[in-house]
Amino acid sequence: MPDLIHDTPAAHPADSATQDDRARQQTVRQIERKRLYRSSAAVSGLGMMLLVLIWAVSQYHDAGGWPAQGFSQSSGIHDVWSLWIVYPVGAWLLLVAAGGWNVHLRKPLPGGLDTAKK
């Protein structure tokens, strides 16, 4: 007489097809996330370069030339550039690094629970 309590049902071919579909969908979502990350990092990098260019032009104008005497936290000093640009660049680098970690290094939750249905 078979042990009815410990018998496991046979796997249906539809179950494996469903698992394959889920794995495929998760892979497609991961590829889309990586593409979105790369494009947003590139666009924000161009924006950051534009900000640095605007900063350099304004500091050149305010200081009356190139930073011959270095950088400082105050502005308006002749031949000294204000160093405020390090704060937005640093914050941008942290955000890009966090986004890269989220996309490339974070493991997905089992069952695909980390992504919402579209």
Descriptive account of the structure:
With 118 residues, the chain is mainly alpha-helical. It has a domain at 29-107. Helices cover 60% and strands 3% of the residues. It has helices at residues 13-63, 86-105, and strands at residues 71-72, 81-82. The chain has a two-stranded parallel ribbon. It is rod-shaped and about 85 Å long. The two termini are 49 Å apart. The relative contact order is 0.11. The mean pLDDT is 79.
What percent strand?
Answer: under 5%
**Count of runs of 4 or more consecutive helical residues:** 2
CA radius of gyration is 27 Å
Sequence of strands across the biggest β-sheet: 1-2
Class by helix and strand content?
Answer: mainly alpha
Total beta-strand segments? 2
Helices and strands, in N-to-C order? HEEH
Q: Please, what is the average pLDDT? A: 79
Distance from first to last alpha carbon = 49 Å
* Global morphology: rod-shaped
| Helical residues, percent | 55-70%
Oligomer: single chain
Low-confidence stretches: none
Largest sheet: 2 strands, parallel
